[in-house]
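Researcher: I'm preparing a figure for a lab meeting and need a structural model of a single chain. I don't have an experimental structure, so a prediction will have to do for now. The sequence is pasted below. Please return the structure as tokens so I can convert it later.
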Amino acid sequence: MIKARLSFIVSCFTILFSSCKDDTPFEKDLNFLEKYDSVIVLSRGDAELIVSPKYQAKVFTSTTGDGLSHGWINYDVFDAPPDPHMNAYGGENRIWLGPEGGPFSLFFPKGFVMDFANWKIPAAFDTEPWKLVFATDTNALMQKDMKLANYSGTEFLASVEREIIALDKPSIERLIGASYSDEIRAVGYMTKNKLTNTGSRTWNDSTGAPCIWILDMFTPSAKTTVIIPFEGDTASRVNTSYFGKIPASRLKFRDGVLLFKADGKKRSKIGIPPDVARSIAGSYDPDKKTLTLTVFDIHPAAPYLNMEWTTEKPPFSGDAINAYNDGPLEDGRLLGPFYELESVSPAAFLAPGQSLSHYHSVFHLTGSEDLLDTICKKTLGISLQEVKKTMDQ
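Model: Understood. Here is the structure written out token by token.
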């Protein structure tokens, strides 16, 4: 009788534990995504991330092991009819090819006005599945052949490879340039993205050239702030003209650091040109006590593509880093809401058979604000108290 009761108690505890685990935001996201794709879960200890070959080689979301899920996933889109502009499945790390606007845009048909009605993401990185080359417990490699046409009428044949690598603590500390105690939970991964010219024509400044564009989609909150350090005190070099003027209450500067409100309530975007950009950006959510960092390649002297929706600006005078805050479109609709941290490669001036690579890594650190503050000052050059004080003014 005693043995039977003990067995019953153990069974109840197991069911209760499994139920609680399934109720965490990360487990809910994983269970949802497994309905639509044979997703891959990469891990390092308790830290995990969900990768999807079917959904364009995205990292959909990740967790430090505390149950929080750090990526924005748009549940409503998976069963919805195809959208003619963007199928916003979400994903905290995805790959596009640029430029978005300009005379060499990949997002507008030749001769059409560059407005939202004509804007469309190429299917190769919007809806089409990618090939899984291999996967292990800690990394996965995916590949996609593409045929694209730009606004000037040039056709491109390309192959894109994308490897996702879950990182251990020493690798995270090395890449962010800061150590952290075991009281901090962390998840980090590197993405290696390679673009190859598989056609017979060289990509140059006459035909136009694509670039690798990495975009990280996260869930906004009323107090989330994007934090981007840049070289010198050159706030005038920051590009704020993508989607109209940004109110001063949403964009502030402190000693070489840009602070940008990421609440998902005002559609706006900023850019940092390569000659003043640093190879790191981040954000902080005080409600979740989460510091997010992204680390990526920067080539200060290289030509970067202008992404703005205009043909009036020089096409190779673009930004290396962007941040986007979602908000209502002119007709009141929302794509999200979400916010993004983005990095791009230089223009890929490639002869047939040549390749260009772009590395972009993502890190989430959760824990006490005091411990996170030390990391933020070391990596982004500003204290979390200064961030909150400045944005509350």
